[in-house]
């Protein structure tokens, strides 16, 4: 049976990380959770350590994910952002796809707390499905599962990229192994990025990064930023969080 590790890059995620770790606790599959922290100034490291995670010093997402992968032991690695809620069912189905021969599993993402974000994420998911029909595989990298040998074969995340490195990884793995889209059990992700910046601008940035990665142009143009999100943003999500043991939000996320 293949073993599963989880790698989570963080920076000042004390407000969101407990929710992510709480959801992971419902699955029996992860053998270890590795938090790769970019020198947080809040309680992120304390929360991770208290929850039994291994904590490493990190950096930007591409480096942090590569470093976490190198320290992990699982045959399969699930990369998660610290604002993601993933169910045990989603993990089980994705791991089964890897066990059946997939090199990479891309999840359907559902944002918590924003109709605008819901429309944007739905558009991105359907666009990825359409591109897959012509053998171009992309997706949102807030949650991404990969097989270790495929990850090693392509050299991992490109650390020269500060944005769109997840799209780049999916594209490169798909050239050597099957990429599966897991839509039966979505993962939920905070809509905080849509609250922090213009939603249309954010969507355009994602589309720009996608086009650049498909064209194999190793440029960022609009570099990645790692802002510090406020407690007010977190509080707006509390009433509409999905159940830890269910894939359904308590009510339609419409704030």
C-alpha termini separation: 42 Å
Characterize the overall form. Answer: globular
CATH fold field value: Spore Coat Polysaccharide Biosynthesis Protein SpsA, Chain A
Number of helices: 10
Beta strands, count:
8
Which oligomerization state do the chains in this entry correspond to? Answer: single chain
Instruction: Work out the count of structural domains.
Output: 1
Biggest sheet architecture: 8 strands, mixed
Going by helix content, strand content and strand pairing, the class is alpha/beta
**Which sequence of strands runs across the widest sheet?**
3-2-1-4-7-6-8-5
SSE succession: EHEHEHEEHEHEHHEHHH
CATH class, please?
Alpha Beta
Beta content comes to 15-25%
Unreliable parts: 244-255
Compute the CA-based radius of gyration.
Answer: 17 Å
Q: Based on the structure given, which CATH architecture is correct? A: Alpha-Beta Complex
Write a structural description:
This protein is α/β, with parallel strands linked by helices. The chain has one domain: Spore Coat Polysaccharide Biosynthesis Protein SpsA, Chain A, CATH 3.90.550.10. Helix content is 40%, strand content 22%. An eight-stranded mixed β-sheet has the order 3-2-1-4-7-6-8-5, with helices on both faces. It is globular. The C terminus is likely disordered.
List the SSEs and their pairings.
Blueprint: E1 4-10, H1 17-24, E2 30-37, H2 44-50, E3 54-57, H3 61-71, E4 76-80, E5 84-85, H4 88-99, E6 102-112, H5 115-133, E7 143-147, H6 148-154, H7 165-174, E8 178-190, H8 192-196, H9 199-214, H10 231-238
Parallel strand pairs: 1-2, 1-4, 2-3, 6-8
Antiparallel strand pairs: 4-7, 5-8, 6-7
């Amino acid at each position: 049976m293949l073993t599963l590790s989880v790698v989570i890059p963080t920076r000042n995620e004390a407000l969101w990380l407990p929710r992510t770790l709480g959801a992971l606790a419902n699955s029996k599959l992860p053998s270890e959770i590795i938090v790769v922290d970019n020198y947080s100034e809040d309680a992120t490291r304390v929360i991770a350590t208290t929850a039994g995670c291994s904590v490493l010093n990190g950096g930007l997402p591409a480096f942090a994910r590569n470093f976490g992968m190198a320290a992990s032991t699982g045959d399969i690695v699930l990369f998660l952002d610290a604002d993601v809620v993933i169910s045990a069912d989603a993990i089980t189905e994705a791991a089964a796809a890897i066990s059946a021969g997939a090199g990479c599993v891309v999840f359907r993402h559902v944002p918590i707390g924003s109709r605008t974000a819901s429309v944007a994420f739905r558009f991105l998911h359907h666009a990825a499905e359409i591109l897959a029909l012509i053998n171009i595989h992309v997706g949102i990298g807030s949650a991404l599962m990969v097989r270790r040998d495929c990850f090693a074969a392509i050299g991992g995340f490109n650390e020269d990229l500060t944005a769109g490195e997840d799209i780049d990884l999916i594209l490169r793995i798909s050239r050597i192994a099957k990429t599966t889209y897991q839509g039966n059990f979505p993962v939920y992700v905070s809509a905080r990025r849509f609250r922090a910046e213009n939603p249309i601008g954010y969507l355009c940035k994602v589309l720009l990064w996608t086009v650049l990665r498909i064209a194999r142009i190793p440029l960022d143009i609009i570099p990645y930023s790692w802002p510090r999100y406020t407690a007010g943003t977190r509080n707006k999500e509390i009433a509409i969080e999905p159940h830890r043991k269910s894939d359904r939000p308590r009510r339609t996320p419409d704030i």
